[in-house]
Amino acid sequence: xxxITTDQWLQTxxxxxxxxxxxxKQYFHNASAKEIYEYLVMHGMYQPIPQGTEQFKTLQExxxxxxxxxxxxxxxxxxxxxxxxxxxxxxxxxNTRLKKLSQGKSGLAFKDKLFLFVSQENTxxxxxxxxxxxxxxxxxxxxxxxxEKDYVLLDTIILEGLAENAxxxxxxxxxxxxxxxxxxxxxxxxIWKDLIYPNRNVSKFDFIHQMIVxxxxxxxxxxxxxxxxxxxxxxxxxxxxxxxxxLSMESNTIAQLLLDNDEHHPLL
Length: 268
Description:
By secondary structure, the protein is mainly α.
């Protein structure tokens, strides 16, 4: 199935995104087009603006759909991943947090589908980094037997760390997310000791789970993401493994280098 021709939908219905989402209803269980659109907007999908069709045309001129399709096929072959529908839409150009955090691009991965939201400013390498990160999520969700509804905090941060390590591996250090360098080693030690370790088994449906993962309110910014990336880097360094080899590993196995240590000296 792969890349869905969302460019054709945008051509005719850019200013009616809920109508566009009528085409997506079949991929969701018991959700209306309006509910789907509101959910996608929460994760970075565009909201119509007067000059929006120009944005869309720029994406076409930049061959965004072709670039992502080619990279997807390469990733699918390398990771022996599933063939899933991939939906590409403009990102929310008014979302300043999105611009600052990830060059105006974002994604939303499910076990059986993938959404990518891209900016007209995104380079080819940035697009490759995006599909790499998000499709790695898809492969992790399908290759590791644990059901996503049963994920706990440790599983989530490992999921994010794996995906960004795949970007480092395939696209290069200059294209990993800015958040990967937010904290020094001693700061990560405190994040592990004070936040991650005590809450490592907190369900993904628990409020504190999201607070830690994204660093909301008074929590360190993107703390879960940063700690997940650090865990993966330590495991890769210790065991010389690849992204593909880690896709089906237990979270506890990957984090064992820290879990084996005394709680008060978690990074020794």
